[in-house]
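Quick one:
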Amino acid sequence: MVNKSYIIYDGPSQIDGSPIVAIAQVKSGNRKTGDMVQTWILRSDVDPITASRTGADSSICGDCMHKGKPSNKATGWAKDRTCYVNLLFAPNGVFKAYNRGVYEVAQGHDAIRAIGLLRGVRLGSYGDPCAVPNYIWESLISGADFVTAYTHNPTNPMPQNIMTSADTATQAHSAWSRGERTFRVISSLDKLIKGREVLCPASDEAGNRATCASCKLCGGNSVKAKSVAIVAHGASKRKAKQMIKESV
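Output:
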């Protein structure tokens, strides 16, 4: 498998049936995650910024509160969007390349497996893994070294590999009662639930002492460790902190 990107799924969203595409980027220079296979889940018929603004991103993000609310503006993304992913960069670039026909299709289990073989794989660098059929991810990670993944879906379809994203302590406790590990964005360090959560080692508060590739904690139940929490970060961290307080 050469170092480029591939379409691993192009079909209906498992969330609402709308057209989506999942693209695996083999090489990555992301300084936070380290060199991992990144996967971008996008609407295939509308660019990421327009999808955000109009609410069409529900097809790939579900009911995640961080995607914001649809706006009646002619440009820009959703109102009160607090997701840390900047749509102007990788998602927009990947969408444009997809529309130019840049990416080859990885067809079938063996071809998809080869992309993640002996590599770290990040499911949903943008978008919720639940939008894509499980069998795609199962193929991609079947020979992987490790996996990081998160879902806001109320029902985690692959808890062995995917962390359940919790927005409140109540949601975290509910997931724990189901035997799921969680990843939770908190407003401040004092909100960390001692004995059940550890601070993300790649966070500013932890001194950025690790990358996802070196930490490997966010691999669902395949990792025997406490759940993980991180203080709201990114360009919209102020809004995110306020939203988290309101949702407690």
